[in-house]
Amino acid sequence: MSESVNIEMERANSLIEDSPSSAGALPNSDDTPPAASTPSTPNIDDRSTVINLTLKKQLDKKATAILFMIYHLAITIFICSWVSSALAFDSYGIVGVAGGAIHGKITEDATKRMGIIDCDKLQEAIRFPDWEQTSVHRLKLRPNNLYIPSNHFDRMAGKSHAQAFKEGAYFVRTEHEKCIRFAQYDKFDASLASLGRVLHAVQDFVSHSNVIDLPESKQQETLKAIWDDSLVLPIELMLTGYDATDSNPGKPLGDQFSHDDFSKDNPNKNAEAKLIVQGKSKYKIAYGFAVDQSEQILTRTKEQLGRDDWLNLVKEFD
Ligand SMILES: [Zn+2]
Q1: 262 in Cβ contact with 240 (< 8 Å)
Q2: Per-residue pLDDT reduced to its tens digit, 134-164
Q3: Could you report the per-residue pLDDT of 212-259, keeping only the tens digit for each?
């Protein structure tokens, strides 16, 4: 029996013992004894009734809590089944259940390294591009008419890997400039929204490419090329194919490096995500890489803004 049930039982007992007819007011032989069936006189049956009601209340609460958990688990499993066709490191899970919202967890890990503990609003801003750009269609999440491939470093049909990368990198640079400008004009909520889009795109880049497979020198060349359009991109870099117009967007017909087969959006996404390299799954490697890149973008933002604007922007994180 739980401690709370014991406490409730003790309370019920003390209420009965403190009542006028059971403590200090016992009838003496001169008083007319109350009738045994008088409702105002508690007896052992009343006591067990109170205890039973207390226990029932506790059990009802527990049953409600269990039903609540089952309900949320069912919703999570349902949502996760949609996510097979989503656009990114997952944005739809509930943290702590079935993988959670991975974009949010990456962000939380990156902000913690910078001493920022609470970042709920920043996490929302980072998940927002997926929520905004997908809709439920025939019980599946699909890109809607707001979907923009460069926001997720997706490679559309007919685009080369380098073209898709350049469009994603351009989006990151322009959105980061907006983030800085908005903050300098004291529009910190708009600055936060832009920062969320930048971080989302870069986290997606890690999942939607083979950057983690490249030698370190090529990784550095690639990361620098996000911020400098004049740099030459390693020819080995590939981005996953995703065609919003296809009946199966994540696996366009004939694509040798499709999103569904090669992205590392969650631990169970595909064989590639589960593949173990030097003791770690590729998903785990991509996750760590995305945390590193997120931290670097936050540091870049902090340096460009200066102390006061940065602190004001951080206030918007939670
Ligand atoms: Zn995305």
Answers
A1: yes
A2: 998 888 888 999 999 999 999 999 999 999 9
A3: 999 999 999 999 999 999 999 999 999 999 999 998 999 999 999 999
* Alpha carbon of 260 to ligand 1 centroid (Å): 13
What is the amino acid identity at position 303?
E
Where is 106: in which H helix or E strand?
Answer: helix 102-113
Q: Is residue 263 predicted with pLDDT exceeding 70? A: yes
Tell me how far the alpha carbon of residue 199 lies from the centroid of ligand 1, in angstroms: 10
- DSSP characters for 60-102? HHHHHHHHHHHHHHHHHHHHHHHGGG-SSS--SSPTTSTT--H
CA distance 60 to 142: 40
Ion ligand 1 neighbours, Cβ < 5 Å: 87-88, 130, 152, 204
In this structure, what are the phi and psi dihedrals at residue 234, rounded to the nearest 5 degrees? -60, 135
Instruction: Please report the beta strands in the chain, taking only residues with DSSP state E, as ranges in sequence order.
Output: 134-137, 140-143, 276-277, 280-281
Q: What's the CA-to-centroid distance between 240 and ligand 1, angstroms? A: 12
23-36 mean pLDDT: 39
d(CA 122, CA 56): 43
Query: Do 284 and 206 touch, CB atoms closer than 8 A?
Result: no
